[in-house]
Amino acid sequence: MSKNNTLSMSPNFFVSGGVLLAIFTLIHLLYAGLIRPAAEVAMAEQGTEALTAFSVIFKDVEQQVCISLMFFCLFLMLYKLWRLIDEEEIYSRDLLESYDKSEALDVDAALNDLESSAYKETPAYSTWINCIRRFKNTKNVQHAADTIESSVDNIAIQLESGNNMIRYIIWAIPSIGFVGTVRGIGAALAQADKALEGDIAGMTASLGVAFNSTLVALFISLILMLFMHLLNSRQDKMVIRTQESCEKHLLSHLHS
User: Fold this and answer.
1) What is the model's pTM?
2) Nearest to residue 55, comparing CAs of 71, 77, 36?
3) Which string of b and e fits 46-75 if b means at least 16 CB within 10 Å?
4) DSSP label at 52?
């Protein structure tokens, strides 16, 4: 895993692409084998009364794409949440707890211990490593303290940048729903002549496409925004705890 992916806590390109392809394939099979056949049966048996049926509401291609993107977006967010929870224990602990704070820190040994850790590219470890390197070069605690702030700011930027794809998907889903609305209204207007002759079934079905696509897209967006809020809260907590850990533990080692 690259360092950028580690700091942003996002899956790499190949993992993301594989999961996206798998999700779209599974959802397509679900629609082809279950949802659309059920919708056709409901429409044939109940006519316009079937417009409120679950399968009819979800049967169109816009809803299929929105649901596929929803699961992919959930995967991205849950992956990042899992990473945050998995590494939560190291955010606030003293990474050099084996060193006596009453004695001068062996900078080279400390760097070697941190850089040999399996977590060396996590935000917490990378902040400690950058700070100690700065102290090693300058022999100045204040310069090391300044490095803490810049490193933490960099972590926050990386985490925010890692959410760009998630934010785009959350924005794109209502837009796809609106595309379905435009398509449905266009199809309904094309059947206006039949409606004037008394056959309103086609127009009603087309208007159903228009409203259902927007309904599903907006509902999905509400769900994803909730998870996005939880993810942002976790990320902010991690950044704050990393900075507090450095100021509480690391600087005390450097002041020795």
Assistant:
1) 0.85
2) 36
3) eeeebbebebbbbbbbbbbbbbbbbbbbbb
4) G
User: Which are the contacts of 125, defined by CB distance < 8 A and separation ≥ 6?
Assistant: 90, 95, 114, 117, 119
Between the CA of residue 232 and those of 87, 172, 197, 218, 226, what are the distances in Å?
16, 19, 55, 21, 10
SS3 label, residue 177:
helix
- State the angle between helix axes of 201-245 and 164-190 in degrees (0 to 180), rounded to the nearest 10: 170
Give which of 252, 253, 233, 235 is closest to 123, Cα–Cα: 235
- The helix/strand/coil state of 39 is helix
Choose among 42, 72, 23: nearest CA to 220: 72
Note whether 105 and 256 are within 8 A (CB).
Answer: yes
CA 97, 100, 101, 106 torsion-angle sign: negative
C-alpha distance from residue 196 to each of 47, 51, 99, 192, 199 (Å): 19, 21, 86, 6, 7
Phi, psi at residue 106, to the nearest 5°? Answer: -80, 95
The residues, any chain, with a CB within 8 Å of residue 119's CB and separated by 6 or more, are 87, 90, 125
- Which amino acid is residue 46, in one-letter code? Q
Q: What is the pLDDT of residues 68-104, one digit of tens each?
A: 999 999 999 999 999 888 888 788 888 888 888 778 8
Contact present, 19 and 75 (Cβ < 8 Å): yes
Q: Between 61-86 and 201-245, two packed helices, what is the crossing angle to 10 degrees?
A: 10
- Which tokens is 101 given? 């704070």
Give residue 112's pLDDT.
92
Among candidate residues 248, 1, 254, the one with its CA nearest the CA of residue 122: 1
